[in-house]
Amino acid sequence: MISITNASCVFRHASGREVRALDRISSTIGDGEFVCLLGRSGHGKSTLLRSLAGLNTLTAGEIAVDGRPVKGPGIDRGMVFQEDTVFPWMTVQANVEFGLLAQGIPAAERQGVAREWLDKVGLGRFGDSWPKELSGGMRKRVAIATAFAGGAPILLMDEPFGPLDYVTRRDLQNLLIDLWRSTGRTIIFVTHDIEEALVLAERALVLRAGRIVDDIRVDLTRPRDEEERASPRGIAISKTILGHLELEQHTPGAA
Ligand SMILES: Nc1ncnc2c1ncn2[C@@H]1O[C@H](COP(=O)(O)OP(=O)(O)OP(=O)(O)O)[C@@H](O)[C@H]1O
To answer: Given phi > 0 = left and psi -120 to 50 = alpha, else beta, which region is 231?
Structure first.
């Protein structure tokens, strides 16, 4: 279980201006949950995810995994970023094996695990390919296979499907849901896209100005097809989230 207690993060910019990226956030995330972090640009989603990953230090408060405070990255937490995170100088198979190599897993075992995960993401025939020979969507599959193969029970994903076209994105969303359901991993997924959250999440944490302003149970049935998302409950969830994301009303004459 992940517990976040009064987590705050203040950045001081070169101009001397201070930005409170996280403002006394508290929440708990149970094992096996699929949580989307939603919010407008600059409202703290990536900072929270990076803090969970141990890539960012809090200025106050604490994040703990199974009672152990997060002090840096660890093999219990895998990451998938928006940018391509595959190593271009390694074959697809070597990329997926890399995290296992770092854990000291013997060659035969890591080759087997990597092959198994490449099969699961539909790239069984591409182990000997170079990343540059793959499409953007296929490279993202490599990144997903690498994250799952590493064995971390918690996977942290920062807008991983952001740059992809609609159909590729939908395919990868479906793949991710299948892998989540079959493995029971905990997934925390940053998105600014309400539709993506409705397709993926069991729970949506909405961030605004560094605070969690809503914690919504996305209790739609799966598959989350157009019809399900357009159900009264789907529309109600969308409207609630949109209400939190909408621009502040500009009051004429206000400072
Ligand atoms: N390393 C940093 N140094 C200084 N300020 C930062 C740093 N990282 C984030 N910030 C600031 O913290 C605030 C929250 O940024 P964050 O990246 O967490 O937002 P976000 O919701 O993920 O945005 P986006 O959707 O655009 O990625 C922003 O004002 C940003 O400028």
So the answer is: beta
On the question of pLDDT at 248 being above 60, the answer is no
Distance of CA 152 to the CA centre of its chain: 13
| Domain membership of residue 195 as a residue range | 32-57+71-76+153-246
- For 1-126, strand residue ranges (E) read 2-12, 18-29, 34-38, 60-65, 68-69, 77-80
Whether ligand 1 lies within 6 angstroms of the CB of 39 is answered as yes
CATH number of the domain to which 219 belongs: 3.40.50.300
Q: What is the ipTM of this complex?
A: 0.96
Q: How far is the CA of 20 from the centre of ligand 1 (A)?
A: 9
For 183-224, how does the pLDDT look when each residue is reduced to its tens digit (9 = 90+)? Answer: 999 999 999 999 999 999 999 999 999 999 999 999 999 999
Determine if ligand 1 sits within 6 Å of the CB of residue 88: no
| Whether residue 47 has its Cβ less than 6 Å from ligand 1 | yes
* pTM score over 0.90: yes
* Best residue for ligand 1 mutational test, from 40, 45, 211 (most atoms within 8 Å of Cβ): 45
Q: Whose CA is nearest to atom 5 of ligand 1?
A: 11
Which of 104, 133, 151 is the endpoint of a domain? 151
101 and 222 together in one domain: no
